[in-house]
Every structure is written in structure tokens, then in C-alpha cells.
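Continuing the series of single-chain predictions for the mutant panel. This is the parent chain; the variants come on the following pages.
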Amino acid sequence: MHAVVGYRRGRSEPPTAERCESEEDLMVHGSCLCGGIRFEYARAVSEIYLCHCSLCRKNSGAASNAVVVVPEDTFNWLSGDELRQVYTKPTGWSATFCRTCGSPVPARMRGATAYGVPAGLLDDDPGARIGCHILVGSKAPWDEIGGSAPQFLEGLRTPKAGK
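Parent structure:
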């Protein structure tokens, strides 16, 4: 894993120790579609995970759900806490979304001290790239996974699929 950080929108290059104007330069910002929910996180996140399970497909409306895992102690809500709505299935699986625009929004991960942050909400380049594809054993029949990132049939500790 390598350490990378996002940088403030409008910058052409990431900050260096010499050019660092403020702590904000080391923050990655994100927001929902309507802008009512805003958040930021610090620290380097080096990978984006793509989940291809049927629940994530339905939640994202796409072939997979792109998520950045962010340690809870580096994550900050900036606005819109009152706009977050949670839908929970009888199985315990849940999805958190903005009650105004319907965007999926960050949520605490079960059994972890981290947030799952939908990568599509990021307003800044986090510096992270696709790290792996998970649950490809249940991907949609029309989904053709490209790129060279590893693919796992189930979770990260399961055998790899054809790649």
C-alpha cells in the first residue's frame, strides 16, 4: 500500500510540505447530489473497492458499488446530519441515503471503526485507485469487469476469480 492524499479542488498538484497552506490541503471532501450532506476525511486512503453483489448493485443502480473505507477517527460530517436516512432490510443489511436527493451517503461499517464512503460522492481526487473487485461470484450476467485489479469471488479473503 502506498500513502496518497487528495487535495483541494482547483489545485493542479497535491500539496507538498513546502506548499502546504493549511490542514484543509490534506482533506478529501465529498457531498451528495443536492449538496445538503457534506463531509471530509483526512489521512491517506490507498484503494477503492468495487462490490458486485446484488444488494450493492441495487443500492448504487450500477454494475458495482465503489467504496472507500475511511477510519472513523479521520471522518468529519460538515453538514446535513439531519438529512441522512437509513433503510434496513430484515437481514440487517442497510443503506444510508440523503432524504432530499436520494444519493447514497457514507455510513459506519458494521463491526468496524470505519465509514464506507461512496466514491462517487468525492469532490476531490482522493489519489486512490481501484484496488480490487469483491463478490464477483454474484455479479450481474451483463457485467464485464475490466482493468487489472484483483477479483475475489466473495470477500477479500476468498479465492480469486479468473484474474
